[in-house]
Specification:
Gyrase A, domain 2, 4 helices, protein biosynthesis
């Protein structure tokens, strides 16, 4: 009976993969001097008395590497969309051209690039901490299983598996961070 005790490593792996996915989303929101439709996704516009995602009041396009355009469907919302962009903290000055709002993406200076690289490092460290917390949960499950009759040899095998899974995910975080920092520092 004691040999049948197992730990749900699939759950631990899913949670670690979820932490990696959250890191990728945070990295996608970092502006690297290149236009991306995802950079305006979190912006909410006060449309018709309700906060509405910007992509539900107009079409977001990226016609060139340093330009995002938003074709607003309802001309009465143009001012509200412009205001939402200015207040979003993106640091971009929108230019209104008829029913289209143009967002020229300025080149990043060296100081801003270093600052963004540090922010990326912070995001990565938070993900590493989350992965280590998941490992700790797994180790706690193993301690509980040992007190419920798991053999010491089985416990050591499971601990090695959980540790290996953790090391693999931490390595992925480091590789993703290195790639993002290279992207940020690229002129």
């Amino acid at each position: 009976m004691a040999d049948d005790i197992e730990i749900d490593t699939g759950d631990l792996e899913r949670r670690m993969d979820g932490a990696m996915q959250a890191l990728r989303q945070e990295f996608a929101s970092l502006r690297t001097g290149r236009a991306s439709a995802s950079m305006v996704e979190p912006i909410m516009v006060d449309a018709y008395g309700q906060p509405t995602p910007i992509n539900q009041v107009g079409t977001v396009n990226v016609p060139e590497p340093r330009m995002v355009t938003i074709s607003v469907w309802d001309k009465s919302l143009l001012g509200k969309v412009e205001k939402a962009i200015r207040e979003s903290g993106l640091g971009i000055n929108p230019v209104i051209d008829g029913t289209t709002i143009r967002l020229p993406i300025p080149e990043l200076n060296e100081e801003r690039r270093k600052e963004l690289a540090k922010v990326a490092g912070t995001y990565a460290e938070n993900t590493r901490v989350a992965i280590r917390n998941i490992r700790r949960d797994g180790m706690d499950q193993l301690k509980k299983a040992k007190s419920n009759g798991m053999s010491e040899d089985d416990q050591k095998l499971w601990q090695a598996e959980v540790q290996e899974m953790t090391d693999t995910h931490i390595k992925k975080v480091d590789e993703t961070l290195e790639h993002k920092q290279q992207e940020i520092m690229q002129v």
